[in-house]
Amino acid sequence: MEETLHFCYNNGVRTLLKPYFPSSHLHFPSISRVRPLSSSILSSKTSISLPKKPSKTSKFHPLTPHPQHDLPPEPHSEPQTDPNCQFREKMLYLESIGIDLFSLVDGYPPIVSSSLDNIKSTVDYMRSMGFTPIEFRRICGMCPEILSSRVTEIAPVFAFLLREVNVKASNLRRVINRRPRLLACDVEKRLRPTLYFLQRIGIEEVDKHTSLLSCSVEEKFIPRIECLERIGFSYRDAISMVRRFPQMFCYSIKDNLEPKFDYFVMEMGRDLKELKEFPQYFSFSLENRIKPRHRACVEKGVCFPLHVMLKTSEKQFRDKLEVSLLPIDQNFDDCSLRNPWKFRDRCHI
Question: C-alpha 247: how far from its chain's center?
């Protein structure tokens, strides 16, 4: 039997495989030397293919490392700033302009996270608009949100007041000092819709009522108009009243409008027409002005129009009481004296 050796090429290295013997009883003589392999054996048992010769024009690409050895670059780490240090710098800066940071935190905690650079930019911008340090401190005390606002959010408010509300440049500081919250309002979402509503109901000189611009139409204006309708006024009369006295939009329904209206009807016995003509009635204190003067009129048996009874000074009111006394008919009973509006036609107007 002819001896056959098999070669296996593993990664280019020739390895001699141990021959397989099907039976153990066969005996072979010892081999003193390895016989040369014939070409037929190599051709039948192995297939060797040589690589093609590279052309002269071929380019060799640089070797790249194995993917598993590709490590991501280490991120560039910046030095972390100590939060306590940032807070200390912010506190010292605000103290340098006369503002106590701790007093602001009580009313507006987000001020703690405000950027010091943004605060400095806001302070510089307000100075450029002509606000004094005293004015700016007062503004921050009333509306600390300004310190957390960016200049890009504050500047459009000034432009809106000047161009659309027609506030004079000389009055701009007075408008902001009177209502600092205007600077914390968004022009598109709050200021402009409120301006359009006030103009639509007939309030033309909105520049005289700029404090209303920061109010919500849905949450502030509409409920007060509905309250006037609920107590007996028509929608047209309610609009006429707020047009005549727009500040009524700012009064509380529960603490102002309702108790004063109840006293007007139940105790004073007056007609709604008087309220329509003089809605400023709601601006006077019920305990300090309305009740004392009404009682004085009842005691003296006189009747004044609302604007005369409430708008005059205390001295003028007492003088009018003295000169306006009328002889009381003996036929009137004590009840009439306690409620002189029952004989209003006989009162001095």
Answer: 24
Residue 15 three-state SS: strand
8 Å CB contact between 203 and 243: yes
CATH code (residue 102): 1.25.70.10
- 298 residue type, one letter: V
Q: Are 304 and 349 in contact (CB under 8 A)?
A: yes
The secondary structure of 233-293 as a DSSP string is --HHHHHHHHHH-GGGGGS-IIIIIHHHHHHHHHTS---HHHHHH-GGGGGS-IIIIIHHH
Residue 344 has pLDDT above 80, yes or no: no
Annotate 309-347 with DSSP letters as a single string: HHHS-HHHHHHHHHHT--PPPTTS-HHHHH-GGGGGGGS
pLDDT digits (tens, 9 = 90+) for 190-232: 999 999 999 999 998 999 999 999 999 999 999 999 999 999 9
Q: How many structural domains are present in the chain?
A: 1
Would residue 27 be called left, alpha or beta, if left means φ above 0 and alpha means ψ between -120 and 50 degrees?
A: beta
Residue 226, CB-side half-sphere exposure with 13 Å CA sphere: 7
Mean pLDDT to the nearest integer, 244-268: 95
Decide if 46 is inside a domain. Answer: no
The whole model's pTM is what? Answer: 0.67
Question: Considering the domain boundaries, does residue 236 fall inside one?
Answer: no
d(CA 264, CA 113): 50
- Is 348 a member of any domain? no
Q: Indicate whether 111 belongs to any domain.
A: yes
- What residues make up the domain containing 159? 83-184
